[in-house]
UniProtKB/TrEMBL annotation:
Taxonomy, superkingdom: Bacteria
Source organism (scientific name): Enterocloster lavalensis
Membrane as UniProt keyword: yes
InterPro entries: Spore_III_AB
Record protein name field: Stage III sporulation protein AB
Amino acid sequence: MLLKYLGAALILISAPGLGMYLAGQWKERLRLLEKLRQMIYFLKGEITYSHAPLAEALERVGRRSGGPLGDMFVRASERICTQEGESLQEIWSGETRTMAAGAKNLPLTRADLEQFTALGEHLGYLDVDMQERTLLLYLEQLDLSIEYLQAHRQEKCRLYTSLGVMGGIFLVIVMC
């Protein structure tokens, strides 16, 4: 009987915790995408106004921003500078895979990572205007994602926490 009550107590604690975790992931994804938008604006400025080469621009933005995205920018810059015969597309996609695999708590979805990887396909070749247009297109996609997350943040976070609490209560009732 004691184990039954202990199990019910653990469920009543862990189920709302799971709901709060999912709500936190939603907020963290929003924060990370906003930081990525800021980094892309910095990268656009480095390329457009200071006419910095892509490797140098990536390094400056990565060092200024930090975090897993900043580290990814710095690693991509280092791989570009070593000139091992890889294209920027290969370097970029490899670094995004490494970033996604290395940061287990990265709250980005598969669609976010695919869009971020697609940015590397068109970056680094042609002229400054084309690179600026590529970055602006990615920024538009990023703004749509951020707008969606902001519009639904309150209702999704409330939904996740409520479902956690109600799911825990339902599970305890079914088990007892």
